Amino acid sequence: MASNDNLSGRDDNRVELHVPRGESESVIQVTLRTLAVMRNVPISDLEPLYERIEPDALVDLLSHAEECNAAVSVEFTVEGHTVAISHEEGEHLGDSNPVVVEVVDDA
C-alpha cells in the first residue's frame, strides 16, 4: 500500500510516495508499481527502467548490502520523478523489509 506523505517544510507541489515491498516483489517491480501509481497509468505504459539504470546491478547492490548488513542508497530520475531506493543497515526482525522505495513527483 502506498502512503502519501506531505511533511511540513516541504514544497507544496511535491508529492512523495513511500511504498513497502511485498515479500515476493522485487525492488524493480515495486519501483515500477509506484511509478505507475504516480503517473496513473498501467505499468506497461512506463518507459523501461533499463533505459535509465542497470536493473541487475541495482538488485545485486541491494542484495550485497543486505548480506553485509550495510546501508546503501541509490537515486535516479525517470519520467519526471526522482526515485530513491535504499537499504538500511541494522537487524530486521521477521518479515520486516529493510529496502525502502521512495518516489517524488518533481513536477
TrEMBL record:
Listed Basic and acidic residues bias regions: 8-20
Region (Disordered): 1-20
Stretches assigned to the Halobacterial output domain: 24-88
Pfam families reported in the protein's UniProt record: HalOD1
Identification of the protein by name: Halobacterial output domain-containing protein
Organism expressing this protein natively: Halopelagius longus
InterPro entries per the UniProt record, alphabetical: HalOD1 (IPR040624)
